[in-house]
Amino acid sequence: MAEDTADADPFDFENLYAKENDALQAFLSEHGALALYHLGGSLNWDFCDRTILWVVQNPDCPKATASRIFWQSGAEFRATNPGESYGRANEIMDTVLRRWKVGEYRHEDWADPEPDMTRYEIDYYRNSEGVHAAGNPLGIPDDLFIVVEGTIPPRPAVLHPGQNAELDAILLDLGMFYRD
After folding, report:
1. How far apart, in Å, are the Cα atoms of 143 and each of 64, 119, 139, 146, 164?
2. Which region, left, alpha or beta, applies to residue 153 given φ > 0 means left and ψ of -120 to 50 means alpha?
3. How many CB atoms lie within 10 A of CB 51?
4. How far apart (Å, rounded) are the C-alpha atoms in residues 131 and 114?
5. Among 125, 147, 146, 113, which Cα is nearest to 40's?
6. Mean pLDDT throughout 70-83?
7. How far apart are CA 166 and CA 2, in angstroms?
8. Helices 63-72 & 115-127 angle (0-180, nearest 10)
9. What is the pTM of this model?
10. I need a labelling partner for 73 at 20 to 30 A (CA). Which of 83, 120, 123, 165 fits?
């Protein structure tokens, strides 16, 4: 008897890029905190939300990377649309908030690699009429509203897609075209 697929989702987005995300996570694991720092905050949300969640859950995730990802995740949308699902972004935000509040993020002396972009996202959130009227609906800690300052650690060649064919291929499979 044929399987009834009338209700089946034609695209299994959860697993669509599973193999590619697994490869990226293996690469990031192999290269540690520096890889999370230099690559984690600039991943493609359309295809890598699984890996982005994995990054913020990772014990080696730098504080600046967690902050950058949090502010990229749509905090303003979530704050002004309570109860609405925002895909994996809700879980990413919850993870960052939970771990941030107990001081679990590491490498506090590493600076945000894109401070102007993070500052823009923070200002956008703070100046949103809906967020302003609600106070602080997500319970964001005061220090998460401050761009992480410090030093930018050197980026080894292995973490430059243009200089590492393996990394370049993984990112290309996930729709990312980086050129150093």
Report:
1. 12, 13, 12, 5, 36
2. beta
3. 22
4. 24
5. 113
6. 89
7. 41
8. 50
9. 0.89
10. 165
Say what the alpha-carbon torsion angle 94, 74, 27, 168 is, to the nearest 10 degrees.
180
Q: Measured between alpha carbons, how far is 17 from 23 in angstroms, rounded to an integer?
A: 10
DSSP H or E stretch at residue 18: helix 18-40
Q: What is the mean pLDDT of residues 72-79?
A: 91
Residue that the structure tokens 């697994």 belong to = 22
- Looking at this protein, which amino acid is placed at residue 47? F
Beta strand residue intervals within 6-136, DSSP E: none
State how far Cα 126 lies from the chain centre: 20
The whole-number pLDDT of residue 84 equals 82
| 87-91 CB contacts, 8 Å cutoff, 24+ apart | 87/49, 88/49, 88/50, 88/52, 88/53, 89/45, 89/49, 91/53
28: number of Cβ within 10 Å:
25
CA distance 147 to 133: 23
pLDDT in tens, 113-129: 999 999 999 999 988 88
Whole-angstrom distance, CA of residue 135 vs CA of residue 1: 57
**What span, in angstroms and rounded, lies between the C-alpha atoms of 124 and 79?**
12
